[in-house]
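Render Serine/threonine-protein kinase HT1, putative in 3D.
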Amino acid sequence: MLQLFIIIDLKMAASLFMDLDGMPILDSDVIGYGGSGVVVRRGNLAIKMPLRYPGSSEEDVQSNIKVLQHEQEVYRRFNSFTEDLIDRIVPCSRLCTNAIELGFMENGDLRSYLQKHQPSRTVQIAWFRQMARALEQIHGKYVLLCDIASRNILLDSDLSIKICDFSEASILPLGTTMETVNDQGFSVQTDIGLLGAVIYEVIAGQQCKFNLFDGPAASQATFPHRTSLPSTASLWLGHIIEKCWTVGGFQNAHALSQALESADLEQENHSTNKKCTTLLEYFRGETETSIIVLAITFSALIAVTTWVRRQT
């Protein structure tokens, strides 16, 4: 019996996390973790449970349990709209007492994927459309995401977008006018702004900090000043990102979704066509110039020939 306790103690010492029963969680099973939760793999499922370290206080554990229970309420809100389920969030198979059973996403999170891969613009625009459509559906359930980031966007086996982590989401009363609601600074506009930062990260290949809490004394979310955000000049879809970063640029996620649906690779093609047009104009101009030069030269030759004949 003593030997068994020693083995358990060694495992606990080597494990970063514990479950609520006090048993160690193998590091190899951990998919990811955040400020209040840890996600472990169990076959084809990803189980999210309250975060607990070996040295965590009971107060910390209870606080993390409340955060997970709040996220469960978000899923209950989503599932209450049985005729209009959201197809771009990580599927939830079951809500347990202190855990959430989710589908396992084979390609991990978007941020990690971008560190190893450079997706084509065709893939990128497909992602952006999926993100905007998901945000539109989530707002349609009277929920604000509040924490949109590439680390919270997962990729399925076919590289389709699945949004996860609703621990900080705001659940609003049914019938709320989403375009005007303000929940401690969070709004449809801050969600769109955060999504614009993800679009920028994918296109530019570098993270963009869309800081809603500027300064340690900030008590509520505030839309950041444009000067704190990077330039989008000459960036593909830069005009769309700019509108995301402008309060009222897009009235809602539906307007953003429509803009992305019509964008496609249009901007790149327009640029290419412009270059072609410029080249055609250049060659046309060169041809016209050559004809004029030839005409002047020919006229000069005629004049010289006529003068020579008269002299002789």
